[in-house]
Amino acid sequence: MVPYKYIAIEGCIGAGKTELSLQLAKRLNARHVLEQFEDNPFLPKFYADKRRYAFPLEMSFLASRYHQLSADLQQGNLFQQHIVADYVIQKCLLFSRVNLDDEEYNLYNKLFQIIQLNCPAPDLLVYVFRDIPQLLKNIAKRNRDYERNIDESYLSNIQNGYMEMFKNQTSQRILLLDAHQFDYVDDKNNFEIIFRLLQQEYPLGVTKITL
Questions:
Q1: Residue closest to 83 by CA, chosen among 16, 34, 25, 26
Q2: Averaged pLDDT score across all residues of the chain
Q3: How far apart are CA 151 and CA 136, in angstroms?
Q4: CATH topology classification for 6-210
Q5: Is the dihedral of CA 161, 169, 208, 19 positive or negative?
């Protein structure tokens, strides 16, 4: 039995967090909260011109993520005892720190601090860690037009931002899965390994497991 009612899956771009959240939600018969990033009209514009579209992109993501989480997490369902999301609201602050200049970030941060008060933290945050070459390989494999210009330095900045966010975290349970070349999409036995890990009780702070 998985003891966590609300589980969030996170990872850098191309880590495979959405696929893991899909499998986990299906296995638990859980409500699945899936980020609707492909509907964001600013995303392809941002990858074409980061400086011009960074602020509207981050503001639109903040609004959509807040609306989705606040709506989905308040819905009750007697037949679904678990909630699985493929993101946490804190990723807004992380991406904005990388993408915005200081003045824009300071303004954004003020709004974020108000909004996050209404978004409950997950009982367990699972972070899927993959190295940069593997992330680039996965991004190329899914072949999205607007992601073709993503470079190593941008992915490194995002991944380092997550690691910095976790460094001093003592109020949340974080399971960091070092999943370099660990295939849980095509290899169902590997997914079972992760599922068994989620049945364990973890202390507050970061627990790192190499798969």
A1: 25
A2: 92
A3: 8
A4: Rossmann fold (3.40.50)
A5: negative
Residue 72: the pLDDT is: 73
Cα distance from N-terminal residue to C-terminal residue, the chain: 21
List alpha helices for 11-131, DSSP H. Answer: 17-28, 42-48, 50-72, 91-99, 102-115
Token readout for 18 is 């959405």
What are the distances in angstroms from CA 118 to CA 78, 105, 187? 23, 20, 38
* Residue pLDDT, tens place only, 32-83: 999 887 778 999 999 999 999 999 999 999 999 998 888 777 665 545 689 9
Contact 206, 176 (CB under 8 A): yes
Domain borders along the chain are 6-210
